[in-house]
Amino acid sequence: MSICSKCVMLAAVTVKHGASLIVNPCKQTPILGEVNIARYLARLLTPRYDDDIVTATQIDSILDHAAAVLHGSDTSAIVKSLGQLLARKRWFVGNERPSLADIVMWSAVKQRCSDAMVPDNVCQWLARCDMLPEFANAGRLLIV
What we know:
Blueprint: H1 5-11, E1 20-21, E2 31-32, H2 34-45, H3 53-71, H4 75-85, H5 100-112, H6 120-131, H7 133-139
Antiparallel strand pairs: 1-2
């Protein structure tokens, strides 16, 4: 038999909370949602991620906002608060370059928000993101 029945059954399962990741099915609970997968991979691939606890906490806070954008019921209020978080800043954490917070939030806003609900400074931030080649490439892969 070329295809096992378990594989066929898994392919038909609908994922309720978006993407899921299981690294070791015998020893691990699934990591649910793209926000939590990004958080996990950032810490896995960057061993010194939590060395600067203030920056790590700021990023985690924005990631929590991104999860609320993706799965919350009052998306417009959350997006409005993003405008306040971006006041006088180019990126969510720091001004030099985008961080994990910007990457995940960009994905969430692109997936769930209409142009009418996005404040002006969030639109400017989105435009800055879209000008970077990494975001442009990712934008072609988003399913909205």
